[in-house]
Amino acid sequence: MQFKDLGLDNRLLRKIDHMGFKAPTDIQSQAIPVGIAGKDLLASSKTGSGKTLAFLMPAMQRMYRSKPFTRRDPRVVILTPTRELAKQVYAELKALASGTPYTFCLVLGGENFNDQVKELRNKDPMFVVATPGRLADHLEHRSLVLDGLEMLILDEADRMLDLGFKDQLERINAAANHRRRQTMMFSATLDHQQVNEIAADMLNMPKRISVGQSNEQHQDIEQQFILCDHLDHKEAILDHLLESEDHQQVIIFTATRADTERLTEKLNKDKRKAVALSGGMNQTARNNIMSQFERHVHKVLVTTDVASRGLDISAVSHVINFDMPKHAEEYVHRVGRTGRAGNKGKAFSLVGPKDWWSFKNIEAFLQQTISFDAIEGLGGKFKGLKPKQTRKPQAKKPTTAAKKQKDADNTKSTSVKRRDKTFYKTVAVGDSVFMPKKRKPETNSDS
Ligand code: ADP
Ligand code: MG
User: Fold this and answer.
1) To pair with 260 at 20 to 30 A between CA atoms, which of 15, 143, 148, 366?
2) Which residues of 342-363 are buried (b: 16+ CB within 10 A; e: fewer)?
3) pLDDT tens track for 100-125
4) Domains, the chain
5) Are 367 and 244 in contact (CB under 8 A)?
6) Which tens digits make up the pLDDT trace of 316-336?
7) What is the pTM of this model?
């Protein structure tokens, strides 16, 4: 398949050629024609497979080929869960749109609201790339109107829901709720109950494209798991990995913001050129850290799941999960910071007693029995935990009020279930079943 077979405008083809892309990736081959045809789309493919261009090209094509609905409203809105990812998508959009008269704005939480109001007013951008909380604030403030919105794109939709942006997404959806709007959702992991629910609300008879399965082994990422007894043991193993692995740049994921600081301090004492990035930092600090890391000022980025999604830094040769992620999908996204666009990468996961149940979740999600690797001279005692015994609650005879409530709930769940049939997948793992659970939102600071 070639880019010229996808129905793209010649001006776009020249642009892609100029940017040095030779042939479309699988997701691009499949998603671009659907996007160009104006259809709603729910698309997933592995990390690093070029999803950004798969949605930016149809968006650009629309600018080239069709007239706007209104004179001043944005025509395309792209939402991402984190500010860093929004900036990256914005940079890719700018590259694709360079030399065209198209206008764009980046609207992020953590930056001056009034400056954004002025910029939106002065520019009347055709494209807005935003984090959902701040975009919803602008809608409320009427500094942005979406009556003329033609395309709504949600990158990493599942993560936005995990971060508690459901309400904001619903408000954005309602503000641009007209029949001619096209909506597209992209992620490497879309088998998520809340995604199905929101997709049923936001998408109109979507085409579903999955290139591979989200739990499939990524061929370009060598993945190893190492058992650890305690924090000191993890640190010793980390030292060993940084010493013995031939690495360019490394991203280390920890469980909490405090851990990023502590570990960074320790690594810098050992002259590892590390820097911490977490959602609690102010935006200027976050911007500086990311731009320095991209310019290789630092070799090691120690972070939380704020950096698990979307970031595309080609020199990241290694990912180390110093702590395992709570959500199994985040494992797929974290390791996907390496091995991008056909490059090879390595990922190491350190599994201690506190990580055990997260690890078991990941194992179930990946539908694999994972074996552990040992490092000579650094073996430990920990070999895993036994399954917890759960007592079955005794069934009580329902009271009349409880029975009424149950009947009401059942009515609700039937309709949800019917909707779910379209998208929702359950994955059998041996004789148990992996079901993405409804989750409490995590704290998000990226509004
Ligand atoms: P994803 O969103 O699927 O994780 P990205 O859109 O971030 O992946 O793309 C990953 C990398 O692949 C980027 O550096 C991007 O420039 C590059 N890329 C995108 N499309 C192509 C292509 N057709 N050929 C080669 N590289 C590509
Ligand atoms: Mg992406």
Assistant:
1) 366
2) eeebbbbbbbbeebbebbbbbb
3) 999 999 999 999 999 999 999 999 99
4) 3-211 (3.40.50.300), 221-366 (3.40.50.300)
5) no
6) 999 999 999 999 999 999 999
7) 0.86
Query: What would the two tokens of residue 63 be?
Result: 């600018």
| Residue 212 confidence (pLDDT) above 90 | no
Residue among 15, 49, 334 to mutate when testing ligand 1 (max atoms within 8 A of CB): 49
* Cα 80 from Cα 58, distance rounded (Å): 18
| Distance separating alpha carbons of residues 187 and 45, to the nearest angstrom | 7
Site residues for ligand 1, CB cut-off 6 Å: 21, 24-25, 28, 47-53, 310, 312, 340-341
Q: Which residues on neighbouring strands pair with residue 185, listed in sequence order?
A: 42, 154
Q: Please give the Cα distance from 211 to 215 (Å, whole number).
A: 12
Distance CA 144, CA 199 (A): 24
Tell me which DSSP letter residue 443 carries: P
d(CA 220, ligand 1 centre) in Å: 14
Asked if residue 143 lies in contact with residue 116, where contact means CB atoms within 8 angstroms, the answer is: yes
Q: pLDDT value at position 288?
A: 94
CA 423 vs CA 2, 37, 162, 418: distances in Å: 30, 21, 18, 10
Helix, strand, or coil (residue 157): helix
Nearest-atom index, ligand 1, CA of 336: 4
Alpha-carbon gap, residue 157 to 185, rounded angstroms: 6
Place of tokens 């992991």: 189
Rounded Cα distance, 46 and 423, in Å: 18
Give every CB contact of residue 242 below 8 A, 6+ residues apart in sequence. 250, 267, 272, 300
Dihedral sign, Cα of residue 325, residue 331, residue 335, residue 341: negative
Q: Which residues of 209-221 are buried (b: 16+ CB within 10 A; e: fewer)?
A: bebbebbeebebb
Ligand 1: residue whose CA is nearest its atom 21: 50
* Distance, CA of 39 to CA of 59 (rounded, Å): 12
Residue 67 CA to chain centroid, in angstroms? 32
Residue 364: enclosing H or E segment and its boundaries? helix 356-366
For ligand 1, the distance from its centroid to the CA atom of residue 73, given in whole angstroms, is: 29
